[in-house]
C-alpha cells in the first residue's frame, strides 16, 4: 500500500509526472530493503543472545549467526534501525535516479509512514509490542483484553493472559497513520524541501517515546536504567534514539529553511 501510494504521490508532486513514478517505485524497493535489513540488525544488537547462541544455549558459529540474522521470520525488527538504514540507502540511490534529495525524502516519508501504520496491525494480531496492565474501566482502543487462552505462538506475555492492558499497538498504528496524513497535508503547502521529512521525524521522536512508557514488554526491548535527580529513569532503545532524532530534526528544519528562503525547494506544482 505504501509503494502504491508512493507512485501516486510521485505522479502528483514529482518534478517529472511521466517518469518519476517508475523512479520512485524502484527507489521504494531499495527503501524496503533498508527497512528490513536495518530493523533486523538493530534487533540483533539489542538481543545478541538470540543470535550468538542456539535455543539450548550453545554458541553458534559465525555462519550460524549470519544465517540467524538473515532469518527475519525468527525474532523481530526494530523500527528505528530500519528507518535509519532506509534513509541511508535511499539517499545513496537518489543520485542514480536524479531526484532532488530532500523533496524526494518528503514524498517517501509519507508513503513509508502509511506502510508503517498498516504494518502495526500485524503487531496487534500476534501480540507484539503490547502494553502493560491498566484499569479495566478504560475503553477500547485505549485498552484491550488479552485473549485467554493464548495461542501457543502468541507474543503477549503469558502473565497477562486475560488481563486488560494498554493497546499500544493500536496507538502506534494511529500515530503512524496520523503522521502520514500530516505529511500529506504539509506536502502541498510546504515552503522548503525537507519540511515534511524532519517535521514528521521530530514529532515521531516525541510520540514514540511517550508510547514506550506504556508498553509492558520490557524483556523484549533494550533499555538502560539511569539515575536522574535522585530517581531511576528507564531509557529504552527507541527513547535514546529519539533523544538524538528530535534535536537533529529541529536543527535540520532550521538549516533547510534558511537555505531555501524562496520556497524553490518545494515541488513545482505546490509553488504559487
Percent range of helical residues: 55-70%
**Major sheet:** 2 strands, antiparallel
Span between N and C termini?
A: 30 Å
Q: How many beta strands in the DSSP annotation?
A: 4
Lateral strand order in the biggest sheet = 1-2
Class of secondary structure makeup = mainly alpha
Q: Based on CA inertia axes, which overall geometry fits?
A: globular
Strand content: 5-15%
Element pattern in H and E: HHHHHHEEHHEEH
Would you identify the regions where 5 or more consecutive residues have pLDDT less than 50? 268-272
Mean pLDDT: 89
Q: Count up the helices.
A: 9
Question: Could you explain how this protein is built, in words?
Answer:
The chain is mainly alpha-helical. Helices cover 58% and strands 7% of the residues. It has nine helices and four strands. The strands form two sheets. A two-stranded antiparallel ribbon has the order 1-2. The protein has a two-stranded antiparallel sheet with strand order 3-4. The protein starts with a helix and ends in a 13-residue tail after the last helix. Residues 268-272 have low confidence and may be disordered.
Layout of helices and strands, plus pairs?
Blueprint: H1 2-13, H2 20-46, H3 49-52, H4 62-70, H5 79-97, H6 101-126, E1 143-145, E2 164-166, H7 168-187, H8 195-212, E3 223-228, E4 231-236, H9 237-259
Antiparallel strand pairs: 1-2, 3-4
How would you sum up this structure in a few lines?
By secondary structure, this protein is mainly alpha-helical. The protein has 9 helices and 4 strands.
Characteristics:
58% helix, two-stranded antiparallel sheet, 272 residues, 9 helices, mainly alpha, globular
Amino acid at each position: 500500500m505504501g509503494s502504491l501510494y508512493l507512485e501516486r504521490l510521485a505522479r502528483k508532486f514529482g518534478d517529472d509526472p511521466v517518469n518519476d513514478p517508475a523512479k520512485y517505485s524502484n527507489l521504494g524497493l531499495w527503501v524496503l530493503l533498508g527497512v528490513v535489513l536495518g530493523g533486523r540488525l538493530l534487533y540483533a544488537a539489542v538481543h545478541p543472545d538470540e543470535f550468538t547462541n542456539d535455543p539450548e544455549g550453545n554458541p553458534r558459529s559465525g555462519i550460524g549467526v549470519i544465517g540467524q540474522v538473515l532469518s527475519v521470520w525468527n525474532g523481530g525488527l526494530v523500527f528505528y534501525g530500519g528507518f535509519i538504514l532506509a534513509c541511508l540507502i535511499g539517499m545513496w540511490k537518489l543520485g542514480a535516479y536524479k531526484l532532488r534529495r530532500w523533496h524526494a525524502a518528503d514524498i517517501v516519508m509519507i508513503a513509508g509512514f502509511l506502510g508503517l501504520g498498516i504494518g502495526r496491525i500485524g503487531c496487534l494480531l500476534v501480540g507484539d509490542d503490547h502494553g502493560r496492565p491498566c484499569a479495566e474501566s478504560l475503553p477500547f482502543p485505549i485498552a484491550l483484553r488479552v485473549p485467554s487462552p493464548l495461542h501457543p505462538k502468541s507474543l503477549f506475555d503469558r502473565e497477562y493472559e486475560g488481563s486488560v492492558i494498554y493497546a499500544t499497538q493500536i496507538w502506534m498504528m494511529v500515530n503512524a497513520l496520523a503522521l502520514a496524513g500530516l505529511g500529506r497535508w504539509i506536502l502541498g503547502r510546504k515552503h522548503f524541501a525537507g519540511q515534511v521529512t524532519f517535521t514528521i521525524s521530530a514529532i515521531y521522536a516525541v510520540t514514540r517515546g511517550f508510547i514506550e512508557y506504556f508498553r509492558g514488554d520490557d524483556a523484549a526491548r533494550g533499555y538502560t536504567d539511569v539515575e536522574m535527580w535522585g530517581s531511576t529513569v528507564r531509557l529504552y532503545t527507541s527513547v535514546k534514539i529519539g533523544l538524538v532524532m528530535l534535536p537533529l530534526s529541529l536543527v535540520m528544519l532550521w538549516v533547510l529553511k534558511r537555505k531555501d528562503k524562496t520556497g524553490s525547494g518545494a515541488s513545482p506544482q505546490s509553488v504559487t
